[in-house]
Amino acid sequence: ASDADDPTYGNSAKLVYSILEGQPYFSVEPQTGIIRTALPNMDREARQEYNVVIQAKDMGGHMGGLSGTTKVTITLTDVNDNPPKFPQSVYAMSVSEDAVPGEEVGRLKAKDPDLGENGLVSYRLLDGDGVNVFEI
Asked: Which segments in the chain show pLDDT lower than 70?
């Protein structure tokens, strides 16, 4: 923010910043206007966007000073903080003993709530009786 008052005359042009909306998630440094996170472990999957209202008050924030406000929309970006999950923990499938190689036995789909590359899922066989018989 800026103030058109003469900076050489008292505190008329001295600005003090405060946060009117957005707590407890964010804070603002009173002298600089720098907005900072105030809580650890914010989760984009729970809430992606925050609306913050910042006030700038002249005269160093003292009585009689004028103020202005602005709205800031803060969007959390995604990090890879969620593992893929299958809807079921166990699946049962069957296939004919005379099935030809490459015949589909079944489909599985895991979901990952992360976005973009963070949400891409890849599959592989780890263990079991058919680890050398089946492929993905």
From this structure: 1-11
> What is the predicted pLDDT for the residue at 15?
93
For 4-62, where are the alpha helices, taking DSSP H only? none
Task: Give 24's DSSP letter.
Answer: T
User: Which string of DSSP letters, residue by residue, matches 71-135?
Assistant: EEEEEPPP-S----B-S-S-------TTPPTT--------B--S-GGGG-------SSTTTTT--
**Strand, helix or coil at 31?**
coil
Which residue, among 102, 112, 110, 111, has the nearest Cα to 136 in the 3D structure? 102
